[in-house]
Amino acid sequence: MASRVSLSLFPVVLCLVSLALTGIYAQESESKEFVLTLDHSNFSDTVSKHDFIVVEFYAPWCGHCKKLAPEYEKAASILSSNDPPLVLAKVDASEEVNRGLASEYGVQGFPTIKILRNGGKTVEEYKGPREADGIVAYVKKLSGPASVEVKTVEDASSFTSEKKIVIVGVFPKFSGEEFENFTAVAEKLRSDYEFGHTMDAKLLPRGESSVTGPIIRLLKPFDELFVDFKDFHTDAVEKFIEDSSSPMVTEYSNDPSNHPFVVKFFNNPNAKAMLFLNFSEVADAFRPKYHEVAEKYRSEGISFLLGDLETSKGAFQYFGLKEDQVPVIIIQTNDGKKYVKTYLKPEHIEDWMKEFKDGKLRPFIKSEPIPEQNNEPVKVVVADSLQDVFFKSGKNVLLEFYAPWCGHCKQLAPILDEVAVSYENDPDVMIAKIDATANDIPSDFEVQGYPTIYFKSKSGDLLTYDEDRTKESIVAFIEKNRDKTDKQADEQTSKAADTPSDKQDSAKDEL
């Protein structure tokens, strides 16, 4: 009887043991970190052992890094089961001992993610998603071959898309200089484009199907839909891809498939022509003429964008325009100058572009209205009054560039008021401010944060103010750098003559 009871309990015992072990393994899995932690001591040795590794440079206090962390860890756990396993790693770049690594890899913000290949000999930017499933798909794609072979119609269907750029090399054989150059370019540009190669052009959805190559066919979702190219020098191939992968006119709308082309438009070095209008009302009337002008001028270093009013409201705020001024065309050049034509009609486009190319247009300057009353101690300056109030006033002027939402600017405001009040009876000194978010700032000034403060002496010397933001420090700076009248200079000399030398030395020590 005892024997039968023992045997009958055996499956139950196995089940309980199995459950216990499963719980232990689950706890171990939950506690295990799949993201590899690196630092200056083990970075080089670890990277050198991997043909492919992804490294995040992060800072513990960074909000974007905190948001990425669980997604990055989840992706790492999934990729650890890949065949072969793919490794995600991280480096705390805020630690002093790791600053050298951050500098070596060009880390200028957090998080920065790099893909390292061939033991770290090749480094490229991670340009993929920031959520787990997207990270997994992107890393798997980049860990595979730079160019995939297209063998069947099914391969071509899954590889090509109506929504993205695809570059396919057609070759009689997968060897030789042309094929090697093609794969070298694919390796270099793989994070930006899809590459494939085939021996049978009949598999491709567009273009002449009887070609045997070698030839490069770029498939795209706009304009002529495909372009063929036969020069296999690597520089020529890269230029061909770059030139052919941008639309004649980039469309800026709510369609997410357009967004990569919009990003590329704003990142390219050309002058930028941007036509904004209401797509639902007048787009069809403008498209033919705008495309015609784009085709004529794109070879002259100008890129063209057509933006929907609904999507482009941020641009209107940036350029200081109003929605009721559409249709409007804007050209922004590399030196920051802007040219604007509001209430545009289709027949205006070509003549206006010609005037721009001929240098007959005056640059547009975003400016708040010049205030009718400017009686406060701190004078208000706008773009349209900057020359007269700051550069041509004949005064020593301290000018603050501020943003209305900036907390540091709000703290500084009452201090500047006190400084201005202390100079109310001095006709040679002016304290002023300009809203840098509502007015264009000329290239004379470098404003990369708020508040930024400049000082100009009567004689025209331009200085930045980087000292303490106290009334005493600001006044001392003004007095040190201002141009004084003869009377003020005589008074200062007389005062110095009456001051004992030991006190003068003490004052110099304090300065």
UniProtKB/TrEMBL annotation:
Compartments where found: Endoplasmic reticulum lumen
All copies of domain Thioredoxin, residue ranges: 15-144, 356-483
One GO BP: response to endoplasmic reticulum stress
SUPFAM superfamilies cross-referenced by the UniProt entry: Thioredoxin-like
UniProt entry tagged with the keyword Repeat: yes
The keyword Ribonucleoprotein appears for this protein: no
Catalysed reactions, semicolon-separated: Catalyzes the rearrangement of -S-S- bonds in proteins
Main localisation: endoplasmic reticulum
Secretion signal span: 1-26
EC number(s) from the headed UniProt entry: 5.3.4.1
Biased composition (Basic and acidic residues): 481-493, 500-511
Function description: Participates in the folding of proteins containing disulfide bonds, may be involved in glycosylation, prolyl hydroxylation and triglyceride transfer.
Name by which UniProt lists this protein: Protein disulfide-isomerase
